Amino acid sequence: MTITQKIIDKHGIKPDEYKKIVSLIGKEPNLLELGIFSAMWNEHCSYKSSKKYLKKLPTKNKKVIQGPGENAGIIDIEDDDALVFKIESHNHPSYIEPYQGAATGVGGILRDIFTMGARPIATLNSIHFGDHEHPKTKNLLNGVVSGIGGYGNCIGIPNIGGEVKFNSSYNENILVNAMAVGIVKKNKIFYSKAQGIDQPVIYVGSKTGRDGIHGASMASTEFDKNSEKKNQQYRLAILILKSYF
C-alpha cells in the first residue's frame, strides 16, 4: 500500500514527525510501521505537549525506586515493601462512550500495576464535568461513574476516594482521571526493558478486538467545531465493531 498524505493525517502524524520517522528507519514507513509510530507518538502515550512541564517536577529521592520511564512509579515504604502507583486520563474516550471509556481507563492503570509485579489494592479518581444544566452532563456522569465502579468491582479492587467537579469549561471536553495503587516486595519488582537475544516472547490473554485500533491517536485529537460529527462517527464505529465481538 502506498502511504499517502491522507493516510498520514488519519494516523495523527504531523509533517515534521513523518520526516523524523523516515530519518530514524532510513526509508518510507509501511502501514504497519506508521501505525506503530502513531500509537507510540500520540499525545495520549507520549505527552508531547506536557512533557516539558512534567520534566520540571521532582522525580528522584532516596525513597523513589522507580520514577518516570516505566509502566508505573514505585516508592519504598520500608520493611521490604514498595508502593506502586499509576495515574491515567481517559477524557476523549469517556466523552464519546462514557461507560467503556472510563472502564478501560481503570483497566489500563490496573494493568500497569500488574506489569510491575505488584498486586493492586485500591483505585481513586478525579472526574470533571460540564455545567449541571448541560444536556449531556447527566448521561456522562452516570456512565463514567458506572464504568469506574464496574471495572474495579469485577476484579475486587475498591475505589477508596475521589472527587467530582462541575464547570461549564468542561461542557465539550470532560476530564476523567483514574489512579491505581499496588503493593510489591522490593525483590519481586518487574521491569519492562528486555535484554539479551533469542529470548522467548509469551502472549497471554484473549485476542484484542479491532475496536482498539487508533484508540490512542483518537484520544489525542483536539475537540473543535467538527468534534460532534467525529464523535458520532466514532460511536457508530464502536456499535458496528461490537456487533462482531
Describe the SSE topology:
Elements: H1 5-10, H2 15-25, H3 31-41, H4 43-46, H5 51-54, E1 64-66, E2 73-76, E3 81-89, H6 91-96, H7 98-115, E4 119-129, H8 137-154, E5 159-166, E6 175-185, H9 215-219, H10 227-242
DSSP strand tally: 6
- How far apart are the first and last residues' alpha carbons, in Å? 28 Å
Shape: globular
C-alpha Rg (nearest Å): 20 Å
Continuous helix count: 10
Low-confidence stretches: 240-245
Output mean pLDDT.
Answer: 85
Structural class: alpha+beta
What is the H-and-E element order?
HHHHHEEEHHEHEEHH
Largest sheet: 6 strands, mixed
Give the strand line-up of the largest sheet. Answer: 1-2-3-6-4-5
Percent in strands: 15-25%
Helix content: 40-55%
What do these coordinates show?
The chain is of the alpha+beta class. The chain contains ten helices and six strands. It has helices at residues 5-10, 15-25, 31-41, 43-46, 51-54, 91-96, 98-115, 137-154, 215-219, 227-242, and strands spanning 64-66, 73-76, 81-89, 119-129, 159-166, 175-185. It has a six-stranded mixed sheet with strand order 1-2-3-6-4-5. Strand 1 and strand 2 (73-76) form a beta hairpin. Helix 7 (98-115) packs parallel to helix 8. 26% of the residues are buried. Mean pLDDT is 85; it is low at 240-245.
Question: Which key phrases capture this entry?
Answer:
single chain; 245 residues; alpha+beta; six-stranded mixed β-sheet; 19% strand; disordered C terminus
Q: What's a concise summary of this model?
A:
With 245 residues, this protein is of the alpha+beta class.
